[in-house]
Design a protein that fits this description.
The protein is of the alpha+beta class. It starts with 16 loop residues before the first helix and ends with a helix.
């Protein structure tokens, strides 16, 4: 199934709604245009790489510094300095 669009006077082209929905294209998504022939272009969706919020190298690193205290013990220790 081919979709046809028309280039506007300002050089803009609308992406058909069906393609936007199928490929999750929304505002801010970048498209990469590549000429593959004199009358043919390839359009690729440029997706941002998925970044692991916690790199595997750092997993477990903070455990070395974690004291094994309950909340009540922390509060008691903090309140000792208030007197």
């Amino acid at each position: 199934m081919a979709d046809v669009t028309t280039v506007s006077e300002r050089g803009q082209v609308a992406i058909p709604a069906r393609l936007r929905r199928e490929h999750d294209i929304h505002a801010g998504i970048e498209l990469v245009w590549e000429a593959v022939g004199p009358d043919e272009w390839r359009v690729r969706i440029k997706r941002a790489p998925v970044v692991d919020p916690q790199p595997k190298l750092m997993r477990g690193f903070a455990k070395r510094f974690r004291a094994v205290k309950t909340t009540a013990e922390w509060m008691r220790e903090l309140r000792e300095g208030e007197d």
